[in-house]
Amino acid sequence: MEANECGPQGFPELKNDTFLRAAWGEETDYTPVWCMRQAGRYLPEFRETRAAQDFFSTCRSPETCCELTLQPLHRFPLDAAIIFSDILVVPQALGMEVTMVPGKGPSFPEPLREERDLQRLRDPTTVASELGYVFQAITLTRQRLAGRVPLIGFAGAPWTLMTYMVEGGGSSTMAQAKRWLYQRPQASHQLLRILTDALVPYLVGQVAAGAQALQLFESHAGHLGPQLFSKFALPYIRDVAKRVKAGLQEAGLAPVPMIIFAKDGHFALEELAQAGYEVVGLDWTVAPEKARDRVGKTVTLQGNLDPCALYASEEEIGRLVQQMLNDFGPQRYIANLGHGLYPDMDPEHVGAFVDAVHKHSRLLRQN
């Protein structure tokens, strides 16, 4: 099925909208929960499905992406699905070569080294047409979900994408990417603008294809201090939200809630809460009550159990969840981990986490 043959109107009716209601700040009967990287290597069935092909080939197969997206929902009563894809499909669509090296992670054989390397990048307005396979995966998954829970689309934020493109992969310091910010501020802004121009139609396209919420991952926020963040990350985070919302309206599409997750960006919580997103995701280094005080009543919070808490016993997970729910309070809250699930985690413990959120949040509302 072509992505444009079936608009949102043609999709099965949504049966569980708890996640969307919480995202919009409406009252919910219990706290909705999903997990970053819920479609991941911790699931044996995921490893089995993925074994056959290389990582980015998997991303380019709508059928496989759909299957991987749905796997955790066959096991756990999660309140949202998130499409299986990768943030690096955007640099790829801009013409950069990216490979996934087993045991090492993403690698760019020819990273951006000089200002003139920006000329190698494709026109950002063509990126969405390169990423039709993501839109097809979203449409297929939305159909197969049969209205069970909402489907989340996502992308990496400009600064985080820039770090990969300049570093050529992961890095513990981001020194090369930060060197650009200090030595080539103009070129850095040019690159961040290119990325923003690519992300906006890509995210609008995800909604057109059937995504019911969007999350922007600023995974490398923590490498920037407050000054660099407010200069090179925040303006583009804001711009993405503003332009995506305008783009949805122009396309005649209903608005969807948007989530910003800036990992280790606790120094910018107030700014992120006013950046145009309905939901602010928190990592596990932030105390929920303090975060709530700082962001005020206008946004929903999402998070933020330490993923490593899932190594604890199921009883302990229950206790930690109870504490977390007490700290966040019952409304304007979506439970999640403070980062993605790790490959060596026990699926049973993920199930214990999900069940504990549902159970304790219902009890919390009765009292």
TrEMBL record:
GO MF annotations in UniProt: uroporphyrinogen decarboxylase activity
GO biological process, one term: heme biosynthetic process
InterPro entries the UniProt entry points to: UROD/MetE-like_sf, Uroporphyrinogen_deCO2ase_HemE, Uroporphyrinogen_deCOase
Keywords (A to Z) from UniProt: Cytoplasm, Decarboxylase, Heme biosynthesis, Lyase, Porphyrin biosynthesis
Keyword check for Manganese: no
Subcellular location: Cytoplasm, Cytosol
Keyword Cell membrane appears in the UniProt entry: no
Pathway the protein takes part in: Porphyrin-containing compound metabolism; protoporphyrin-IX biosynthesis; coproporphyrinogen-III from 5-aminolevulinate: step 4/4
Alphabetical list of Pfam families matching this protein: URO-D
CDD domains for the chain: URO-D
Family assignment from sequence similarity: Belongs to the uroporphyrinogen decarboxylase family.
Subunit structure comment from the entry: Homodimer.
Protein name: Uroporphyrinogen decarboxylase
Lineage of producing organism: Eukaryota, Metazoa, Chordata, Craniata, Vertebrata
